[in-house]
Amino acid sequence: MKLLDVITESPITEANVAQKILKDPRMTKLLTIAWKHDATLPPTVVARLGPSPSEQQIVNAWSKLLDDTLRRNDYGDLSADSKFDDWLTRLYINGQADFEDINGEGGDALGAWKALSIRGLLKPRDQDFNKFTSIKQLQRIRNDREYARELDRIKDAEKIEKMKREKLDVVLIDDDRYFVMIPFNYGACYTFGNAEGYRPNFCTSSSSGDRWFTNYAPNGPIISIVDKSNINEKNGKWQLHAQTNQIVDADQTDRWDKDGNDKRFAELFPGLMKRIGDAMLANADKIKEMSKPITRNVGYDVDKDVKDLQTKYPQAWNSGEKPEEPEPEPEQQPAAEPEPEQQPADEPQAQNDGEGTYLVTQIATGRTARIPADSLAHAQEQLLARHPTFDLNDYRFELIQDQN
Fold it and tell me: Smallest Cα–Cα separation from 288: which of 236, 220, 225, 346?
């Protein structure tokens, strides 16, 4: 069932959790309060209810969203199992999960547990569902290495292959340590979440992730990061979305503590945030073009998006490897002749200065560009005119062709 097909006034069926909730006035009241304070609910559903919905309308809408969540997961339809909707509803009214937690991660976690349970593959300590008191506890099962192998075999392999074929992304970094990309459709998010290594609980890569991708991506680029040296742990995968102040590891640890996670990212990956920004600027035209279908044909403003990374995550942006202490210079003998005048230390170095074509090299990445110019200063002015956020000290200028 698609989200837009939810009709809150439709009859309540026996399997629908609404009937059970409405029989309990206290639960009805608590659910209504939780609903009104949940900013993660689908805007179309909230708008359809109007400014002053009744308790029954809210309960009916909640029940249908819950059924949709339980039907759409990687391991089969769970909507007929009443213990699951009861369990999720109690987490919701007790403030232990919002709709995004339940819809983005809850369905897949429950699906994984049931898939293993009905096949007799659960360890005795994990078999009693009543012992689980949070979605995070269920997610531990999904990330248990022994269970993960079984779940990989259970999950529909064709879906993963289909997503790989359909994915749209721009790879920003792919070296010995890091893989960083911007997804432009749900297929890219799903492929990222289900690739080798630790399975993140990002809502955008869950079985209902297409909904969450279309919720987040139009506002700005999602950035997906893999630390290849730590791929089987939660810090091996991260996701950023500056427009909603999110910077989280695979478990979404302290999801709303932006400053704390900014500091942790800076400590784990010194210098990486600025590399991401530089790579985005280097791929600005491609990013803008590929983002047009999800931004009403406008495309991302990459200069602004990079500036957002710099201002939202200042600790990560300004982090970097500490420079080695320079060795003390040996004592110099008095020079017989005056030394030639040296270029100022803060000026990018060039072999010559004059009219011609300059080879401009980004020192960190080795990427190059050619800029015809009247002088070194003119070449530098042209670079800054195109990319105002660039630091000239990050580039080397070399005159390679003198004009006659």
Answer: 220
